[in-house]
Fold this protein.
Amino acid sequence: MKNRKNIWIAGISMAALCLTACISLGSDDAERTRQERPLVSSMTVTPEVPDKVTFCGEEIDMTRYDRHEALDRELSTFTYFHATTMLLIKRANRYFPIIETVLREEGVPDDFKYLAVIESNLDPRVQSRAKAVGMWQFLEATGREYGLTITPTVDERCHVEKATRAACRYLKDAYEKYGDWASVASSYNGGMGRISRELERQHVEQSLDLWLVEETTRYVYRIIAIKQIFENPYKYGFVMQAKDLYKPILCTPIEIKKDIPDLADFAKSQNVTYADLKRLNPWLRDRKLITNGKAYTLLIPQQGTMDYRLPNDYVHDPRWVVK
């Protein structure tokens, strides 16, 4: 009996010793693995792709492989295109109040402000290689068709409010044709003629189901992606405070009915620089203004709002900033 007890105790001791050795070996292996694995100095996380999104009040299913992957591409691009995406939110603080007001007055869904974002990066003076100009990227012929004045000294494609109203006229024309806002957005890039032809040839009812050139195929998804980020920038890694946003510059409007032969002289008479006059009135395309019998409104910036000595206290959308 005593011998059996000793054998039993010896067996337990041996098992405990083996377990200790295994734990020690396991710990050594784990430590060796930790030492061999490189330290993570930064992290890249794929952004979440929602199962459904809402665009202009219409729900769009994103679970199909093509839609999921298309939106994933654009969300990833905007999320990790850090400097540009952050700049877009900063600029929106200045321009969205103008754009949203016009969209509301014209009866166009608010989500189309994001079309202006992807068209121009909210730069009212930008010009594409195809010579499309302004925040809404009108070609000269199309701009004139929708009521914009374009002369050697005036280009209203660069006038934020007037160009937005012209864009609204186009969007409403397209909606009468399609009755579908996603197809309207596609037509803004691809043209109504092309979208209509392809809908007929491919036997589908909406542009998201079309096979199109890459730029037009990506277009609506880019709008939807930037909307997702603008509505929740913190979720996508953009952390800003009110002072980081670009504040609106308050201006005094002056109606002009006569030619101005030298805009630099005119600016000086208003106690502003020629550069500031051009920045706040980007539709001025020359050193002079020829009115051709029309009346124009020049915006003269107010001195007290032109510097950042006082922090910006205007936040157009509270979702853009952290408390």
Notes: Residues 2-36 form the longest helix (35 residues). Residues 15-19 have pLDDT under 50 and may be disordered.
